[in-house]
Specification:
By secondary structure, the protein is α/β, with parallel strands linked by helices. The protein has a single domain, classed as Rossmann fold, CATH 3.40.50. Helices cover about 30% and strands about 25% of the residues. The strands form two sheets. The chain has an eight-stranded mixed β-sheet. Strands 1-2-3 form a three-stranded antiparallel β-sheet, with no helix packed on it. A hairpin with a 6-residue loop joins strand 10 and strand 11. Helix 6 crosses helix 7. The longest helix has 20 residues. It is globular.
Length: about 220
């Protein structure tokens, strides 16, 4: 699969896949989008509700590693014990991934490199407050027994990967959450919200990142 680096509006890279007309992040800003959707609306929201407690996250769609890096940086700054599991069916080779400018922009190049060079199917300590376990497989093939506080759902859009936005997929994700856990995603399409609700989620729409009016936070109520 041919991939090209592109600069987004906030100066951070994304990757485009020309033959599929896809980009990994918003043209309005890769770091800005990830920070809004996954860090502000996901990680920080959980910490506000559960101060001083550890957090266990699952990311569906490791991709460029940006969400993982932003989480690791926040965990280091705030001294939050974080266990991060990430699924990626089509991993970007580490030598290619580390050319993205996220590490340089966030002054954490070593951390970013360590994330991408860490072994698959093995838990790696990135820093004292952050453990990472990566799985090189599809969500449909994931059968972990761990339950999670928060899920970052960062699959490609329904137009590109409709099979990842169905009620059966959200049933699988619902089962992976702890009671009172939640999922965050950039996509707020009506068909996606209905699929989440059919799986048992309580779905809320919240303001989206720049260039996108809404996003979703979906809860597994106790």
């Amino acid at each position: 699969m041919e991939r090209h680096l592109q600069i987004t509006a906030d100066g951070s890279h994304t990757i485009s896949v020309p033959d599929k007309s896809l980009t990994y992040h918003s043209k309005h800003g890769a770091i800005g989008e990830s920070n809004h959707v996954f860090i502000q609306a996901g990680l920080k929201y959980y910490i506000e509700l559960n101060p001083d407690k550890p957090i266990t996250l699952l990311e569906m769609g490791l991709g460029t590693g940006l969400n993982c890096l932003l989480t690791a940086v926040y965990a280091k700054e705030q001294k939050i014990n974080t266990r991060y599991h990430a699924i990626e069916a089509y991993p970007i080779p580490a030598d290619e991934a580390v050319t993205l400018n996220y590490g340089a922009l966030l002054a954490e190049q070593k951390m970013f490199t360590d994330i991408h060079r860490s072994a698959w199917n093995k838990t790696t300590t990135i820093h004292p407050f952050f453990e990472l376990h990566k799985y090189p497989l599809s969500l449909q093939d994931f059968s972990g027994t761990e339950l999670f506080n928060v899920i970052f759902y960062d699959a490609f859009a329904p137009s590109a990967q409709p099979e990842l936005w169905t009620s059966s997929i959200f049933l699988q994700l619902y089962a992976l959450l702890k009671p009172n856990g939640f999922l965050v995603t950039y996509c707020s399409k009506t068909v996606v919200r209905r699929a989440m609700e059919a799986a048992g989620f309580r779905v809320t729409k919240i303001p989206g990142p720049f260039g996108k009016r809404e996003m979703v936070r979906a809860f597994k109520d106790a």
